[in-house]
Each structure stands twice: as structure tokens, then as C-alpha cells.
Amino acid sequence: MPYPKLKMLIAGEWTDGHSGKNEAVICPADGSEIGRVPHANKQDLNDALESSLKGFNTWRLTTPHNRQAILEKTARLLEERFEDISQNLTREMGKPIVESKTELQVAIDLLRWYSEEGKRIYGRIIPSRFPGMQHEARKVPVGPTLAFVAWNFPATNVMRKVAGALAAGCSITIKPSEETPATAIAIGKAFMDAGLPAGVLNIVFGVPSEVSEHLLNSPIPRKLSFTGSVPVGVHLQQLAAKNLIRCTMELGGHSPVLIFKDADIQKAAQFCAAGKFRNAGQVCISPTRFFVEESVHEEFVNAFKKHVDSINIGDGLDPSVNMGPLVAERRINIIDDFVTDAVSKGAELIVGGKRAQSPGSFYQPTLIRNVPETARIMTEEPFGPIAPTSTFKTLDEVIDRSNSLPFGLAAYAFTQSPKTARLLKTEIESGMLAINSLHIHSVETPFGGLKHSGYGYEGGIEGVEAFLATKYSSEIFE
């Protein structure tokens, strides 16, 4: 299937908008232009906002049973279109086709989870201290919502926002990444073909700062959900504050991995290598700082290197490939600078450390050992295929080092000690922690961070609650 023609969804219609502007979508595997995505102007954004308000007043009155039926039909349509959507996801983002299919399946699972959970939005009756009085707390959809999402997971980033909002009874206007638009558009088409009313879902593109500033300056939106970097998240929160728009912020991380000498080192290395180079390391919960107990550091590095050596880099549409390119050429120099800086400060480059091939934005999977704390990669999120290792001697030391950064999204540990595991659950400052695996999230579990990694949750019952408000009423019966 060829890459589709790209349009925006505004007020139930697929449109190029009124700006006359667009930008190229580049395939990261070969640097070729595969499409052009239209940009919205202020009129388009105003039309989206107005239709979102109308859509909300329709959707909030739709029964949860009927909302669930439309969401379920959308899930079935996505399953029917699974192969085409997966291939286009790989074309625009670069990840191996098996990862694209996994991601799309997770997005469908998220949709089904949210659609069913939307039928279980319960309020409560509160016993009164006064005779004849009843207190009632009801959960209601918060209102028209906005969402801005990053490029690294074009299906799940979009679905976490859209499915959560729709299940709660909200309308939503979303701006996906201009680098990966086709996946979001395919999801939008499935919703519309399933019978979603006009205006309940709007999809717009454009210059990110211009779009976000205009939408957040409107009195219509009552909720913002954002996935992206910390600096952008802080900026959006400031814009949202002007209209007291409540926010969910899923921001960057810098995930520590604690590997203790009592762990199964071979298995830990296998899991860590697979997790580190998934999506070429372009994952907010990717393991990014490997702290290995001193006595097993050599064994871990050697085992890790064996897995790195087996990675096959190339075009993600090739089923034999297990690591694709970085999303864009601009990322090559950024990753290269992390490696150069670490080596200049005394780290040892074990494998990788340079561009893999051209054309395409490919970078070799890279392992660096004995990386000092002064290296940038130990304090800044690399968002790429680099694994830095460092040693530790004591439990207290490694906990302090793990918690030393302002980030707190995900963390991982490998140990056979129940006592150590219990302590880590208490002391590690992260929103999510996995022990003896890298499985950090399922559709039914909350996903979110602490500190500068953001606040609020997606997934699980928390993902629906994020789009709800509580209304209280009291009544006296005569």
C-alpha cells in the first residue's frame, strides 16, 4: 500500500485547511519524501475548537453503552486495516515492522480497555449527618480537551489521549507530530467510519508553537494532555495556566537500571539489551543509566555486548531487521555528541559509536563502560541507542545516584533479594519500577512519572479519571 494522502480532520470533514502551507514527511530509512502534511491556520484551529464544543455537547449526552459500541467498532476497523497501518507507521517513524505491529496492537488494546472502563464511571452517595439529607458526588466529563503528542509512538501516544477522553465522554482536538502523521490519520478515519459524531475528534497539524499557543489561548478547552519533552511541557503548562486548563504531563525520563551481584546477570543483560535498543532507544521509559555492582560489571558488559553484536540494523520493513533508523537526520549529531563527550571524560567505547550507514538516519547500537557522572549522558536523556555503564559498591550509594536527577519516570532493577526489592519500591523516586524485567506498563496499569517527568496518569482506571471532574450535590427530602 502506498503512503496515504494526508489531511486534517476538522468538524467531521477531511481537509487541507485554509493556510495553503504544508511540510514534507521524510522516511528515515532512506531520507526520501513520502508525503506532505497540511498546516492549520487560525481559522482552521477556531473551526476545530468550535466543533469540539458542539461535539462535546453531543458526546457527553451519549450513553456509555453507545459510546462503547462506537469505540469497539473502531477497534475492529483498526484490526481490519492492521497491515497497512503498521507498514505506514514503519515508513514514517522507522521502527522495525514487528515493533510497529506490537505498538498498533497495544493501541487497539488500549482502546478496548478504555471503552469498557467508560461504562464503569461510578459516583457515590455520602452518608449525611443531617436527617433527610442526601449527599451525592458524580463523575462527569471535564469538557473539550486538547492533546499534543510526540513522534516516537505514533499509535499508542495518540490512542492514550483519544481513547481516554472519548471513554470519559469528552471531545478531543489532537495535534500529532508532523513527522509521523499517517498513523494518527488512520486512527481518526477508523473512528469516523465507526460512527463517531462530527467534532468529537479533531486532528490538526502545523507549527507546534503556533498551534499550541492559539488553542490554549481559547476559553473552550478544559483539559490538556501532553507527551513530550520537559522544556515543552513546562511551557505548555504555563500557557494552560492562563485559562486554568487542567493538565496531564507525560514528560522525559532518564531511567536508571540497578543490577545487583545476586541477579541472573546473563538474563539481565539479555533483557537490558532488548529494552535499550527497542525503537533505537527513542523511548521515554528506555533504560538509560546502567549501574552495575562492581563484582559483576565485567560479566554484564561482556554479556550485553554479545546481544549488541547480534543486532541487525536496516529498513524496518525488512522482517530480518531488529533496529531501524533514528527518526530524522537531526538526531545523528545529537547522539554522536553524547558519545564523544563520554569518551573525552574517560569512558571506554566498547562497540558502536558512529553512524551506521547512509542514506537514512542510522546509528550503531552503542555500549560505553565506566562512564563518569560528569559525562552529559549521565544527566541528560539521550533518546537514542547508547548504553552507558557505571559501577557501584553499596545499596545506599546506588539509590542516591539513581535519585540524583530531577527525572522520575521509570526505573529498573535486577536482584534475587526480596529485602532489596522491597526497599527499592519504597526508596526509588520514579512513577514506575520494574524488578527483574523491563515490563513497565500494561493497558490496565497507570503510566506516569514523578518530579520533572510530569504528573497525572494514562492507562488503567487513572487514564479515564484524568478526563473526569467531580460534581457534588445535596438534597433534602421533605
CATH class bucket of the largest domain: Alpha Beta
Please report the number of helical segments. Answer: 14
Please give the CATH architecture of the largest domain.
3-Layer(aba) Sandwich
What is the domain total for the residues?
A: 2
Query: How many beta-strand runs?
Result: 22
How would you characterize the largest beta sheet?
Answer: 7 strands, mixed
| CATH-defined superfamily of the largest domain | Aldehyde Dehydrogenase, Chain A, domain 1
| Helix and strand composition category | alpha/beta
Radius of gyration: 23 Å
What proportion strand?
A: 15-25%
Fraction in helix: 25-40%
Q: Please state the overall shape, judged from the principal axes of the Cα atoms.
A: globular
Give average pLDDT, whole number: 97
Could you provide a short overview of the structure?
The chain has 478 residues and is an alpha/beta fold.
Descriptive notes:
With 478 residues, the protein is an alpha/beta fold. The protein folds into two domains: 8-251 and 453-474, Aldehyde Dehydrogenase, Chain A, domain 1 (3-Layer(aba) Sandwich); 255-442, Aldehyde Dehydrogenase, Chain A, domain 2 (3-Layer(aba) Sandwich), CATH 3.40.309. It is built from 14 helices and 22 strands. A seven-stranded mixed β-sheet has the order 14-15-16-13-12-18-19, sandwiched between helices. A six-stranded mixed β-sheet has the order 9-8-7-10-11-21, sandwiched between helices. Strands 5-6-22 form a three-stranded antiparallel β-sheet, with no helix packed on it. Helix 2 packs antiparallel against helix 4 (97-117) and helix 4 runs parallel beside helix 5 (156-168). It is globular, with a radius of gyration of 23 Å. The chain starts with 7 loop residues before the first strand and ends with a strand.
